[in-house]
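pasting for the record
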Amino acid sequence: MHWGISEFSWGLAEVKKYLWLCGIVFPLLYSFSPAQGKNLEGQEILERADEIRGGGRSVVLEATVTAFKSGKKDNQIKIEVLSIYKERKTLIKSLYPPRDKGRFMLMVGDDFWIYLPHTKRPFRISPLQRLLGDATYADIARPTYSGDYYVSLLREEAFKDKECYILELLAKNKKVAYHRVIYWVEKETFRPLRADFFVVSGKSMKTAFFENYEYKEDLKRYISTELRIIDYFRKDEETLIEYTMIKPQELADKIFSREHLEKMR
C-alpha cells in the first residue's frame, strides 16, 4: 500500500491522540477498578494493628497493674518490661511490692519461665499464668498477634461511634495463650480498641479495652497507655494495666537468656 504525506500526517495525529487517551483515561479507570479499591485483607489489618501495639521495636516500659473487686482496689504491683517484639523476646521484672523483688518472667518464642526469689532454678509456666487479677503474663509479654493467629475479616461495625474492622483470630497451635480472639480495630487509624477472648469450649473468658491513646514523641506514634480487662467468670472483678513509662532502647540478646538471669539473681 502506498501512503501519501497527508495520510502519514493524519496517522501521527491519531497516534498522539491515542497515547494522550492512554495517559489520561486509563489511569482514571484503574483508580476506580475493583483491584485498586478493594477492602484490606484481615492479615494486613492485623499487621497494621500490631505496629500500633509494638511492631518490631525494642522497648523498655514500666507498668502499674491494679486489681479491683466490687469497684475497690484489691491489690497492686509495679513491673518493668524489656521487650523485642519482633523477635518474641520479653523480660518482666517485679519492682513492687518489695517482697516480689528478684522475681522475673522470661519469654523466648513460645516458652515462658518464671524465676522466684530464693529458688535455684526457673519454673516453666503457661502464658495464661496470672500476673495479677485478670492480667496474664501473655497480656504483657505478647501484645502482638499476627505471628500467633490465623486471621479472617468477619465484618465492619461501629464501636463507641468509631467504624471498626472486626477480626476473628484462631490460635495456630496449643502454645498460644488464647484459643480464639475477636479483635476490634479502628478503620481510620488501625488502633486496637477491644479484644474478646474465648476458651477452647467457646465460652467467653474476658474482654480487654485499649484506652487512653497518647502520642509518644520517642516512639513517633500513638499508643494505648491503659488496658482495662473485664472477667466474665468473676463479674465483680476488673484489672487495669497502666503504662507509666515507655521508651525505645536497644537491648542485648544476652538479657533474654536463662543463664544471664541466673547470674543476676
